[in-house]
Structures are given as structure tokens and as C-alpha cells.
Write a structure and sequence with these properties.
By secondary structure, this protein is mainly β. The protein has a single domain (18-112), classed as Jelly Rolls, CATH 2.60.120.10. It contains no helices and 8 strands. This is Cupin type-2 domain-containing protein.
Amino acid sequence: MSGKDYIKNVDKACVHTLSQLIGYQDNKVASMTLVQRDLFTTTIMAMDKGTGVGPHACEGDAMVIALEGEGDVMIGEELHLLKQGECIVMPADIPHRVRGERDKFKMMLIVSKPELSNQEK
């Protein structure tokens, strides 16, 4: 095995159930980062009922994958109900929020950001 940690906070060469990698915390949103790079991040989140994140906008596209429960995803002015096994992409630069409004909710968040232009480097 390589000594490099491209993916962190999870044992390598083991089978995992994503929803079991993180637990709920009373009245809070718990999160665990798996990948943190300049242009790409992957995070697992557990939202207690009535909690959530946002509204905010991101410079990259963000995909929410529902791991457990049901979550409310607001993109712009449109509300979506996301159930276990479903996913949705929140487009870059559009305000969005995710909440465990009806139920506790676990999700995986994948964010892909644009590459820096030569002027920004």
C-alpha cells in the first residue's frame, strides 16, 4: 500500500457503508471530509432533523447524494425532496441550501471547481 493519503478519514482496502462512516449529533450538522483539493472536495454530512447548511453559492458544481433519510434541497427558488439513493446537482453560482427538515438526513457532497485561468494563477 502507498503511504500517500489522497482520501482521508477512512480505512483503505476495506469495504464501507457510507452512511455508517458518520453519526448524527443533536441539533447539529456533523461533517467529515474525505477529499480536500483545490479543485475537488468530497464530504459526508449528517444533519439532525431541523438542521442544514446554506443558503450560499459555490464557484463549482456540487452534487448531493442522499445516503439516509430525506433532505430538502433548495436551488434558487426551486425546492427538491431528495430520498435515499437519489442525487441532484446544484449548479455553480446559484444560491442553494440543504436541510434535514422532515427527517434526519445523511449525504455525500462532491464539489468540482473550475480550473484557475492563467491570470488567476
